[in-house]
Amino acid sequence: MQHIQVLDQVTIDKIAAGEVIERPASIVKELVENAIDAGATHVTIEIEEGGISLIRITDDGSGIMKEDIRNAFLRHSTSKIRNVEDLLHITSLGFRGEALSSIAAVTKVEVITKTKEAILGTRYVIEGGQELSLEEAGSSDGTTFIIRQLFYNVPARRKFLKTAMTEAGHVQDLLIRLALSHPEVAFRFLNNNQEKLRTSGSGKLKDVIYNIYGRDVASNLLELDYRQGGIHITGYLGKPLITRGNRNFETFFVNGRYVKSTMISRAVEDAYKDFMMQHKFPFVVLHFQVDTETVDVNVHPTKMELRFQNQQEVYKTVFEAIHRQLLEPELIPQVEVPEPLTSPVQEKKKTPSPDLKLVRRVMPSDSKEAAASITTTPIDSAAPTASEQVKEEPHNEDYFIRKMRERVMSYHNRNSSAEVKDQKKIFRPEEQKKRIQTSVHEATTYKVNETPVIQKPKQLDLFEEKLLEFALWTR
Hints:
Blueprint: H1 9-20, H2 24-37, E1 42-48, E2 54-59, H3 69-72, H4 99-106, E3 108-114, E4 121-127, E5 130-137, E6 142-148, H5 155-158, H6 164-181, E7 186-191, E8 194-198, H7 205-213, H8 215-218, E9 221-228, E10 231-238, E11 250-254, E12 257-259, H9 262-272, E13 284-289, E14 295-296, E15 307-308, H10 311-327, H11 344-350, E16 356-362, E17 372-378, H12 386-389, H13 397-413, H14 424-427, H15 429-444, H16 462-474
Parallel strand pairs: 1-7, 11-13
Antiparallel strand pairs: 1-2, 2-6, 3-4, 3-6, 4-5, 7-8, 9-10, 10-13, 11-12, 14-15, 16-17
Helix pairs in contact: 1-4, 2-6, 6-7, 9-10, 15-16
């Protein structure tokens, strides 16, 4: 039977690092949150090979004093809380004091930091939890973390990392949420020296949404500002026009911290239910300001989940706030078509004379000219026109049958003297007579005993068929 013994510090740190550090995005999350807690207004993130080989994070925050640097890399060392009562009033993003010790246990870390009061900065190097150097160095105000070779001493963890492109995508998704949670901070993200993200830090959430998602999304947003029962909800709701196929665009922040909440997602989707098709999800960016005593953020290793004291009340508040906002505006787009601009000359041409109308007079058919002449004749504008006097004939079945009969007879008679004056060019009586005689002769000399020769029947027009029937009947 194995005896129980206490593990050494290196093993403890690596086990703890496995809970906090999952991939390069986990390191970026912890360090950027520390920069925001330090009051930074500009944060630059640089990665290479998806953050596996290099992560560099630079901020202009308050920095770390030289005498506190060693303590910062010890487990459960933090400046955010002092005792257990402070856990009920957490306003910072980090508070456990596990991030730096976990990062240093599985990477090679270099820190260059300087406070505003100090003349010189400090450079500190630690690899695999072992301190290598601590010295003074020239530096600007703020802190720069350089992380190299993630999981270099834990090969079993390193082989489970994804490709560099996939890991870089996780880092970018994380920075998008951090930028949305703190629009007052200017973020700049570089992947292999290529800029992928930049925000202005103007403090306007809509500007951040525009920089990240583009004009099409930013132009179809509804602003939300709702307060009830100690919960203040602000942010933007996407119109049903910009719905998405998954929940990746439902972004929630509670007291400035990005969280994933099934309850909040359900309340949002229920409020949108009457405005969207099935299997579609809304675009929302919501900030919740709640009393720190009514929410517990210490329920997940990465602080991505939380627990509300009264979840049913939060659900009702979220549903009512979003549903009311969707009912207020008219979501059907309105388009105004301006009137066309016309010049005075065009208006004069388009306006007809009130005293004259065009009347077409057709000359008799036996006339030499046989053409239509147009004359202008003054007509009283009050007199009814010919089209108004003629009663429109109903278009019933008899009407269409009669018109079809007239068209067929007109085609076969070919009596259009206006097109062809010589009717012999149309009828060709000699050729038709010869064809009829040949057909009659073949019909009378047909012998039953002989094997008939199957020939493809020749199509005759209506006039020839009638004439053939008449010839056979008279014979």
